[in-house]
Write the structure tokens for this entry.
Amino acid sequence: MIHLQLSVTKRGTIHLCKIGILLLDRDFEHDIYELIKAFYPEGDIHSLYEKDEEEYDIFFTVKKENDNFVIKYETKDQKGVASAEVIRGADGDSSQETHEKLMDAHEFRKANKDSLKYALYNVLVKLTGRTLPWGNLTGIRPAKLAMGMIESGMKNTEIAQEMRERYLVSAKKTALAITIANRERALLQDIDYEHGYSLYVGIPFCPSICLYCSFSSYPLKLWAKRVDEYLDALCLEIRETARMMKNYKLDTIYIGGGTPTTLEPYQLKRLLDQLGESFGFDGLVEFTIEAGRPDSITREKLETIKEFPVTRISVNPQTMNQDTLEIIGRRHTVAQTIEAFHLARKLNYNNINMDLIVGLPGEDISKVKYTLEKVKELSPDSLTVHSLAVKRAARLNMFKDKYQEMTFENNQEIMDLTQQTAYSMEMGPYYLYRQKNMKGNFENVGYAKVDKAGIYNILIMEEKQPIIALGAGGSSKLVFDHGKRIERVENVKDVTSYIARIDEMIERKRTGIGTWL
């Protein structure tokens, strides 16, 4: 077994396991890379298209030979080979309709991908001596996979067998995915996928930028003088987009960021007035504002929000350990989190979500337990538990040498503890997604009490209807052809560019919506 991840030489230099992947056939190269990365999260991995002269601790060669995918692997101590059958479609002319041919091609490609990943996963289990909780799944939506099987008419027992045998998912994660898929289906039963849509509004400003954050966020102290200018552009986009979507029903609104409550009360009112004037609030299933950072929440802001039919807010501590808050750059106190939560309750907010992150630097299970105990005392209506995922753009990744002596712990025991605590608060899991580079290769799970689930969260993950995204960095998903196709329309991330190019952003939407919806 090869357990190389990183080792420390006598001089203290950290040596990462260096891995080469020679892709002689480039089909599924992304899936191959991601699966290997899942087993070697700290590895220095190189994708190659021709052999080079570098030395590698582990070297993989993946190619297609006749009717098989062939996976060769070589380390300093051993070498081996595995193969997977290539699934082929019917050759020659066919009387099928073009659409059916395309669907067949899609199904054959998926079958081949599954076949290759099954073989590669078993190779990686042999090399490392360990399995992954989500098996060979590398996508971010395992509940969507289970949902698709439910909608095809499969029974829960049949879905469980498929997930465990075909995708090698653990029994515990299989049960979680199926439980969530069934709850999601019940929650979405009254949503009109064909004629409805949801709206995301992005406020990219934050009191400070957290260590792990890779979102398009801007520190308020540097951008305060341009917030009104940003709102000018955003309100224009709101007005124009409402005209484009006038023949569709708006189901949910989600104002996120960044931190929406970095806006001053008059700015919040301006934004919410514009949304009401342009889109209207009649018939909304849900209206969420992610208040987020406790140090941005004031009585006046909460009272302003209360003037509108907002049904759900978030107050996000991430952790209730003060030393961790200081390490990750969240410049607020645990006391401020508690005060903000109690203030919201006093103002009659009856659907409050709290976000937590497990796997933060220096946090072991005892610290996670302390956080959960403090959150339980507050008794929020829903709880979203994130596994730390460090992306390239996060400061924690860009300056990782500075933090290399810190521990980043997440394991099944911690995930079980968060689930048990949620259950003890009378919450059940209702949505799930995964991200690249998650500590422990786990997942993010939303738990909620009865009638308190975040509908928008499910819709964005399950990709059942169009999500129209406004603001800098907004990525609209145009879902059409009965959910079989998705096209994206992107806004630029940079705030200055968004303001300067707002007319272009609006025209992008107009073209995309006119073409695809």
Observations:
- The CA atoms of residues 20 and 380 lie 47 Å apart.
- The chain has 17 helices and 20 strands.
